[in-house]
Amino acid sequence: MAGIYIHIPFCRKACHYCDFHFSTGLGAMEDMGLAICNELYQRKNFLADTSVSTIYFGGGTPSLLPKPILYRILETIGRHFLVEKNTEISFEANPDDITKEKLKEWMDVGINRLSIGIQSFQEDDLAWMNRAHTADQSLQSINRVNEIGFTNYSIDLIYGSPALTDSGWEENLAFVVQHDIKHLSAYALTVEPRTALAKQIQQQKIADVDPDKQAKHFSMLCSWASLHNYSHYEISNLAKEGYRSNHNANYWKGLPYLGVGPSAHSFDGKNRGWNISNNALYIQAQKNNQVIYEEEKLTDTQRANEYIMTSLRTMEGLDLAHIQGLMGETAVSMILKSAQKAIDNGVLQKEHNTLTLTQAGKFLADGIASDLFL
Ligand code: SF4
Fold it and tell me: What's the domain count of the chain?
Protein backbone atom coordinates (compact mmCIF):
# COMPACT_ATOMS: atom_id res chain seq x y z
CA MET A 1 0.00 0.00 0.00
CA ALA A 2 1.17 3.50 -0.77
CA GLY A 3 -0.07 7.07 -1.05
CA ILE A 4 0.17 9.92 -3.53
CA TYR A 5 0.31 13.51 -2.34
CA ILE A 6 -0.34 16.35 -4.83
CA HIS A 7 0.74 19.83 -3.77
CA ILE A 8 -1.31 22.70 -5.25
CA PRO A 9 0.84 25.77 -4.56
CA PHE A 10 -1.67 28.62 -4.89
CA CYS A 11 -3.61 30.64 -2.33
CA ARG A 12 -5.92 33.61 -2.59
CA LYS A 13 -4.36 35.37 0.38
CA ALA A 14 -1.36 34.74 2.63
CA CYS A 15 -2.36 33.69 6.15
CA HIS A 16 0.02 35.33 8.60
CA TYR A 17 1.08 32.12 10.35
CA CYS A 18 1.64 29.98 7.24
CA ASP A 19 5.00 28.61 6.16
CA PHE A 20 3.79 26.19 3.48
CA HIS A 21 4.92 26.77 -0.06
CA PHE A 22 2.38 28.74 -2.12
CA SER A 23 1.99 31.74 -4.39
CA THR A 24 -0.87 34.27 -4.47
CA GLY A 25 -0.27 34.77 -8.22
CA LEU A 26 -2.88 32.45 -9.70
CA GLY A 27 -1.96 32.95 -13.36
CA ALA A 28 0.15 29.82 -13.74
CA MET A 29 -2.58 27.37 -12.67
CA GLU A 30 -2.98 25.78 -16.12
CA ASP A 31 0.79 25.35 -16.60
CA MET A 32 1.08 23.95 -13.09
CA GLY A 33 -1.60 21.35 -13.83
CA LEU A 34 0.30 20.22 -16.93
CA ALA A 35 3.59 20.15 -15.01
CA ILE A 36 2.06 18.03 -12.23
CA CYS A 37 0.70 15.56 -14.80
CA ASN A 38 4.11 15.44 -16.43
CA GLU A 39 5.81 14.74 -13.10
CA LEU A 40 3.31 11.96 -12.39
CA TYR A 41 4.22 10.39 -15.70
CA GLN A 42 7.98 10.82 -15.16
CA ARG A 43 7.82 9.26 -11.72
CA LYS A 44 5.35 6.51 -12.52
CA ASN A 45 7.80 3.84 -11.37
CA PHE A 46 8.37 5.36 -7.94
CA LEU A 47 5.61 3.16 -6.48
CA ALA A 48 6.02 0.41 -9.08
CA ASP A 49 5.77 -2.55 -6.71
CA THR A 50 2.82 -1.40 -4.72
CA SER A 51 -0.78 -0.27 -5.10
CA VAL A 52 -2.09 3.19 -4.22
CA SER A 53 -4.69 3.25 -1.44
CA THR A 54 -4.78 6.99 -0.68
CA ILE A 55 -4.50 10.17 -2.77
CA TYR A 56 -4.31 13.53 -1.03
CA PHE A 57 -4.58 17.00 -2.59
CA GLY A 58 -2.96 19.52 -0.22
CA GLY A 59 -1.49 22.94 -0.48
CA GLY A 60 -1.80 25.73 -0.87
CA THR A 61 -5.45 25.64 -1.78
CA PRO A 62 -6.56 22.74 -4.00
CA SER A 63 -10.13 24.10 -4.02
CA LEU A 64 -8.88 26.84 -6.40
CA LEU A 65 -8.27 24.21 -9.10
CA PRO A 66 -10.60 24.33 -12.10
CA LYS A 67 -12.40 21.04 -12.71
CA PRO A 68 -10.61 20.17 -16.01
CA ILE A 69 -7.19 20.36 -14.32
CA LEU A 70 -8.34 18.32 -11.35
CA TYR A 71 -9.85 15.75 -13.69
CA ARG A 72 -6.67 15.56 -15.75
CA ILE A 73 -4.50 14.98 -12.66
CA LEU A 74 -6.74 12.17 -11.41
CA GLU A 75 -6.94 10.65 -14.85
CA THR A 76 -3.12 10.69 -15.10
CA ILE A 77 -2.83 8.95 -11.73
CA GLY A 78 -5.38 6.34 -12.84
CA ARG A 79 -3.47 5.71 -16.07
CA HIS A 80 0.01 5.30 -14.58
CA PHE A 81 -0.49 3.89 -11.08
CA LEU A 82 -2.18 0.83 -9.66
CA VAL A 83 -5.00 2.57 -7.83
CA GLU A 84 -7.07 0.40 -5.48
CA LYS A 85 -10.84 0.26 -5.86
CA ASN A 86 -11.81 2.03 -2.62
CA THR A 87 -8.97 4.52 -2.58
CA GLU A 88 -9.45 7.41 -0.17
CA ILE A 89 -9.20 10.61 -2.24
CA SER A 90 -8.89 13.61 0.08
CA PHE A 91 -9.10 17.19 -1.01
CA GLU A 92 -8.29 20.34 0.98
CA ALA A 93 -10.86 23.09 0.47
CA ASN A 94 -11.24 26.56 1.92
CA PRO A 95 -14.70 27.81 2.98
CA ASP A 96 -14.72 30.70 0.48
CA ASP A 97 -14.44 28.21 -2.41
CA ILE A 98 -17.17 25.86 -1.24
CA THR A 99 -20.24 26.33 -3.44
CA LYS A 100 -22.79 23.66 -4.27
CA GLU A 101 -21.51 23.58 -7.89
CA LYS A 102 -17.93 22.98 -6.77
CA LEU A 103 -18.98 20.29 -4.31
CA LYS A 104 -20.81 18.47 -7.11
CA GLU A 105 -17.76 18.79 -9.36
CA TRP A 106 -15.51 17.29 -6.70
CA MET A 107 -17.91 14.40 -6.17
CA ASP A 108 -18.13 13.88 -9.94
CA VAL A 109 -14.38 13.44 -10.35
CA GLY A 110 -14.20 10.96 -7.45
CA ILE A 111 -13.16 13.03 -4.42
CA ASN A 112 -14.55 11.14 -1.44
CA ARG A 113 -13.11 13.02 1.53
CA LEU A 114 -12.83 16.77 2.20
CA SER A 115 -10.51 18.54 4.59
CA ILE A 116 -11.93 22.02 5.16
CA GLY A 117 -9.65 24.84 6.34
CA ILE A 118 -12.07 26.47 8.77
CA GLN A 119 -9.43 27.36 11.41
CA SER A 120 -11.99 29.24 13.51
CA PHE A 121 -15.65 30.25 13.67
CA GLN A 122 -14.70 33.54 15.41
CA GLU A 123 -14.55 36.68 13.27
CA ASP A 124 -11.76 38.41 15.27
CA ASP A 125 -9.64 35.29 15.23
CA LEU A 126 -9.98 34.84 11.44
CA ALA A 127 -9.09 38.50 10.82
CA TRP A 128 -6.07 38.16 13.14
CA MET A 129 -4.86 35.17 11.09
CA ASN A 130 -5.52 37.05 7.83
CA ARG A 131 -7.75 34.28 6.52
CA ALA A 132 -9.55 34.91 3.22
CA HIS A 133 -12.98 33.94 4.61
CA THR A 134 -15.41 35.13 7.28
CA ALA A 135 -16.99 33.21 10.16
CA ASP A 136 -20.26 33.27 8.28
CA GLN A 137 -18.62 31.65 5.23
CA SER A 138 -17.17 28.99 7.54
CA LEU A 139 -20.65 28.08 8.76
CA GLN A 140 -22.23 28.25 5.30
CA SER A 141 -19.57 25.95 3.88
CA ILE A 142 -20.33 23.28 6.49
CA ASN A 143 -24.06 23.55 5.80
CA ARG A 144 -23.46 23.15 2.05
CA VAL A 145 -21.20 20.14 2.52
CA ASN A 146 -23.87 18.47 4.67
CA GLU A 147 -26.65 19.36 2.22
CA ILE A 148 -24.78 17.94 -0.77
CA GLY A 149 -24.17 14.72 1.13
CA PHE A 150 -20.41 14.62 1.73
CA THR A 151 -20.33 12.62 4.97
CA ASN A 152 -16.62 11.94 5.11
CA TYR A 153 -15.06 15.31 5.82
CA SER A 154 -12.78 16.90 8.35
CA ILE A 155 -12.31 20.46 9.51
CA ASP A 156 -9.11 22.15 10.70
CA LEU A 157 -9.18 24.38 13.76
CA ILE A 158 -6.34 26.36 15.33
CA TYR A 159 -6.21 26.96 19.08
CA GLY A 160 -4.06 29.05 21.39
CA SER A 161 -3.86 32.18 19.24
CA PRO A 162 -3.75 35.51 21.12
CA ALA A 163 -7.06 36.45 19.42
CA LEU A 164 -8.91 33.32 20.55
CA THR A 165 -10.48 33.47 24.00
CA ASP A 166 -11.23 30.40 26.10
CA SER A 167 -14.95 30.87 25.45
CA GLY A 168 -14.26 31.29 21.71
CA TRP A 169 -12.41 27.96 21.69
CA GLU A 170 -15.24 26.34 23.61
CA GLU A 171 -17.70 27.70 21.05
CA ASN A 172 -15.59 26.44 18.12
CA LEU A 173 -15.62 22.94 19.60
CA ALA A 174 -19.36 23.18 20.25
CA PHE A 175 -19.91 23.90 16.52
CA VAL A 176 -18.17 20.62 15.67
CA VAL A 177 -20.66 18.70 17.80
CA GLN A 178 -23.68 20.70 16.64
CA HIS A 179 -22.87 20.00 13.00
CA ASP A 180 -22.03 16.36 13.65
CA ILE A 181 -18.58 16.74 12.07
CA LYS A 182 -16.91 13.36 12.16
CA HIS A 183 -13.23 14.35 11.98
CA LEU A 184 -11.33 17.26 13.47
CA SER A 185 -7.70 18.29 13.02
CA ALA A 186 -6.83 20.72 15.81
CA TYR A 187 -3.45 22.44 15.83
CA ALA A 188 -1.77 24.70 18.36
CA LEU A 189 -0.79 27.95 16.66
CA THR A 190 2.92 27.72 15.92
CA VAL A 191 5.09 30.73 15.18
CA GLU A 192 7.28 29.61 12.29
CA PRO A 193 10.39 31.65 11.46
CA ARG A 194 10.17 33.94 8.42
CA THR A 195 6.36 34.22 8.55
CA ALA A 196 4.45 37.51 8.77
CA LEU A 197 3.35 36.41 12.24
CA ALA A 198 6.95 35.96 13.48
CA LYS A 199 7.84 39.38 12.10
CA GLN A 200 4.88 41.10 13.76
CA ILE A 201 5.72 39.51 17.11
CA GLN A 202 9.38 40.43 16.75
CA GLN A 203 8.41 44.05 16.02
CA GLN A 204 6.10 43.92 19.06
CA LYS A 205 3.11 44.82 16.91
CA ILE A 206 1.13 41.91 18.31
CA ALA A 207 1.30 39.76 21.43
CA ASP A 208 3.37 36.59 21.40
CA VAL A 209 1.73 33.19 21.78
CA ASP A 210 1.04 32.29 25.42
CA PRO A 211 2.12 28.66 26.14
CA ASP A 212 -0.16 28.47 29.20
CA LYS A 213 -3.16 29.40 27.07
CA GLN A 214 -2.16 26.77 24.50
CA ALA A 215 -1.85 24.12 27.21
CA LYS A 216 -5.27 25.13 28.57
CA HIS A 217 -6.89 24.94 25.11
CA PHE A 218 -5.29 21.53 24.54
CA SER A 219 -6.63 20.29 27.84
CA MET A 220 -10.10 21.61 26.90
CA LEU A 221 -9.78 19.70 23.61
CA CYS A 222 -8.93 16.44 25.42
CA SER A 223 -11.90 16.78 27.81
CA TRP A 224 -14.21 17.69 24.92
CA ALA A 225 -13.05 14.61 22.94
CA SER A 226 -13.80 12.17 25.74
CA LEU A 227 -17.13 13.84 26.55
CA HIS A 228 -18.33 13.64 22.94
CA ASN A 229 -16.86 10.28 22.03
CA TYR A 230 -14.16 11.38 19.59
CA SER A 231 -11.18 9.08 19.42
CA HIS A 232 -8.06 11.23 19.95
CA TYR A 233 -6.10 8.94 17.66
CA GLU A 234 -3.19 11.32 17.08
CA ILE A 235 -2.24 14.44 19.01
CA SER A 236 -3.75 16.77 16.41
CA ASN A 237 -6.41 14.44 15.03
CA LEU A 238 -9.73 13.30 16.46
CA ALA A 239 -12.41 11.21 14.80
CA LYS A 240 -15.65 9.36 15.30
CA GLU A 241 -15.53 5.61 14.74
CA GLY A 242 -14.77 4.81 11.07
CA TYR A 243 -13.66 8.32 10.09
CA ARG A 244 -9.90 8.35 10.66
CA SER A 245 -7.72 9.70 7.85
CA ASN A 246 -6.10 6.72 6.13
CA HIS A 247 -3.62 8.93 4.29
CA ASN A 248 -2.14 10.39 7.47
CA ALA A 249 -2.26 7.04 9.26
CA ASN A 250 -0.14 5.58 6.45
CA TYR A 251 2.48 8.34 6.93
CA TRP A 252 2.68 7.45 10.60
CA LYS A 253 3.04 3.76 9.79
CA GLY A 254 6.04 4.58 7.59
CA LEU A 255 4.42 3.43 4.33
CA PRO A 256 5.83 4.84 1.08
CA TYR A 257 4.32 7.84 -0.67
CA LEU A 258 5.01 9.86 -3.77
CA GLY A 259 4.76 13.64 -3.44
CA VAL A 260 4.17 15.60 -6.66
CA GLY A 261 4.24 19.36 -7.21
CA PRO A 262 6.57 22.09 -5.93
CA SER A 263 7.89 21.44 -2.40
CA ALA A 264 6.20 18.03 -2.18
CA HIS A 265 8.03 15.37 -0.18
CA SER A 266 8.33 11.69 -1.10
CA PHE A 267 9.39 8.58 0.81
CA ASP A 268 10.19 5.23 -0.79
CA GLY A 269 10.31 3.28 2.46
CA LYS A 270 14.01 4.04 2.99
CA ASN A 271 14.88 7.45 1.60
CA ARG A 272 13.22 10.82 1.73
CA GLY A 273 13.23 13.47 -1.01
CA TRP A 274 11.64 16.80 -1.78
CA ASN A 275 10.88 18.85 -4.88
CA ILE A 276 12.06 22.39 -5.48
CA SER A 277 9.90 25.04 -3.71
CA ASN A 278 9.60 27.44 -6.63
CA ASN A 279 6.61 27.41 -8.98
CA ALA A 280 8.32 28.96 -12.03
CA LEU A 281 11.41 26.74 -11.81
CA TYR A 282 9.27 23.66 -11.21
CA ILE A 283 7.14 24.35 -14.30
CA GLN A 284 10.20 25.13 -16.42
CA ALA A 285 11.96 21.94 -15.32
CA GLN A 286 8.89 19.86 -16.17
CA LYS A 287 8.76 21.44 -19.64
CA ASN A 288 12.27 20.03 -20.08
CA ASN A 289 11.21 16.68 -18.60
CA GLN A 290 13.34 17.17 -15.53
CA VAL A 291 12.47 16.81 -11.87
CA ILE A 292 14.37 19.12 -9.51
CA TYR A 293 14.47 16.83 -6.55
CA GLU A 294 16.81 16.50 -3.58
CA GLU A 295 17.21 13.26 -1.70
CA GLU A 296 18.38 12.32 1.75
CA LYS A 297 19.42 8.74 2.42
CA LEU A 298 18.17 7.84 5.87
CA THR A 299 20.27 5.66 8.18
CA ASP A 300 18.55 3.00 10.30
CA THR A 301 19.02 5.29 13.31
CA GLN A 302 17.28 8.19 11.54
CA ARG A 303 14.42 5.92 10.52
CA ALA A 304 14.09 4.63 14.07
CA ASN A 305 14.05 8.21 15.43
CA GLU A 306 11.39 9.22 12.92
CA TYR A 307 9.35 6.23 14.03
CA ILE A 308 9.77 7.27 17.69
CA MET A 309 8.60 10.82 16.88
CA THR A 310 5.54 9.85 14.83
CA SER A 311 4.42 6.74 16.73
CA LEU A 312 4.47 8.44 20.13
CA ARG A 313 1.98 11.01 18.80
CA THR A 314 -0.52 8.27 18.04
CA MET A 315 -2.97 6.47 20.30
CA GLU A 316 -1.33 3.11 19.45
CA GLY A 317 2.04 4.40 20.65
CA LEU A 318 5.59 3.19 20.15
CA ASP A 319 5.89 -0.53 19.51
CA LEU A 320 9.22 -1.70 20.93
CA ALA A 321 9.08 -4.80 18.70
CA HIS A 322 9.30 -2.49 15.68
CA ILE A 323 12.46 -0.89 17.10
CA GLN A 324 13.87 -4.32 17.84
CA GLY A 325 13.29 -5.38 14.23
CA LEU A 326 14.96 -2.23 12.94
CA MET A 327 17.85 -1.76 15.37
CA GLY A 328 18.06 -4.81 17.68
CA GLU A 329 17.69 -5.47 21.41
CA THR A 330 20.33 -2.95 22.55
CA ALA A 331 18.32 -0.07 21.02
CA VAL A 332 15.22 -1.21 22.93
CA SER A 333 17.18 -1.22 26.20
CA MET A 334 18.51 2.27 25.45
CA ILE A 335 15.00 3.60 24.79
CA LEU A 336 13.63 2.02 27.97
CA LYS A 337 16.48 3.56 29.99
CA SER A 338 15.79 7.02 28.49
CA ALA A 339 12.05 6.57 29.05
CA GLN A 340 12.28 5.91 32.78
CA LYS A 341 12.29 9.58 33.83
CA ALA A 342 9.18 10.36 31.74
CA ILE A 343 7.47 7.23 33.14
CA ASP A 344 8.33 8.32 36.72
CA ASN A 345 6.97 11.80 35.96
CA GLY A 346 3.67 10.34 34.78
CA VAL A 347 3.89 11.63 31.20
CA LEU A 348 4.68 8.28 29.57
CA GLN A 349 3.45 4.75 30.29
CA LYS A 350 4.61 1.27 29.35
CA GLU A 351 2.12 -1.48 28.78
CA HIS A 352 3.35 -4.85 27.50
CA ASN A 353 5.73 -3.93 24.69
CA THR A 354 4.33 -0.46 23.96
CA LEU A 355 5.07 3.05 25.16
CA THR A 356 2.23 5.60 25.04
CA LEU A 357 1.87 9.17 26.24
CA THR A 358 -0.42 9.82 29.17
CA GLN A 359 -2.94 12.66 28.98
CA ALA A 360 -0.42 14.94 30.72
CA GLY A 361 2.29 13.86 28.30
CA LYS A 362 0.39 14.57 25.10
CA PHE A 363 1.09 18.29 25.12
CA LEU A 364 4.82 17.57 25.67
CA ALA A 365 5.05 14.93 22.92
CA ASP A 366 7.90 16.35 20.86
CA GLY A 367 10.17 16.90 23.89
CA ILE A 368 9.47 13.43 25.29
CA ALA A 369 10.12 11.83 21.88
CA SER A 370 13.44 13.62 21.44
CA ASP A 371 14.58 12.39 24.88
CA LEU A 372 14.09 8.84 23.55
CA PHE A 373 16.07 9.35 20.34
CA LEU A 374 18.84 6.88 19.60
S1 SF4 B 1 -4.79 29.01 2.84
FE2 SF4 B 1 -3.55 27.41 3.83
S3 SF4 B 1 -1.72 27.20 2.57
FE4 SF4 B 1 -2.73 29.12 1.97
S5 SF4 B 1 -1.70 30.69 3.17
FE6 SF4 B 1 -3.49 30.06 4.35
S7 SF4 B 1 -2.77 28.38 5.68
FE8 SF4 B 1 -1.22 28.70 4.10
Answer: 2
